[in-house]
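Your task
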Amino acid sequence: MEDQQKLQQILSQLEAYKAQSELYKQQIDAIQASIAEVKVLESTLDDIAKKDTVETLVPIGAGSFIKAEIKNEDNVVMSLGSGVAVTKTFDEAKVTAENQKKELQDNLDKLLKDLQQITDIVAQLSPQAEALMQKMQAQGMNPMAGY
């Protein structure tokens, strides 16, 4: 009976780690998407800063766009979140974008490290669970009874 309890404990831990791993993967995907958006911002700022006017497509809703011309006004309105925005110069906007990208990359690196730790733990627990299941089956017990 002790093996059954230990097996159930390991299987519960594996389920919890799997759920945590999925959450981390979702967060990693979101951060990677945010990094890609910041890279587009940086590229766009570079393109606009070099030209007097730039033609672009502006979203007008429902997946529709209209052609527009952006005049180099030397200022960018940047969202700070929670509906708050601030006007910055192109140089300030570039610095802000660089800082955002660095912070996102730091968060991504931490999540990837944590995900690797979870993967390592699962790699240690899985063989233990398999060994207990084989042992219980050899003894004629149903390893999944009660689970």
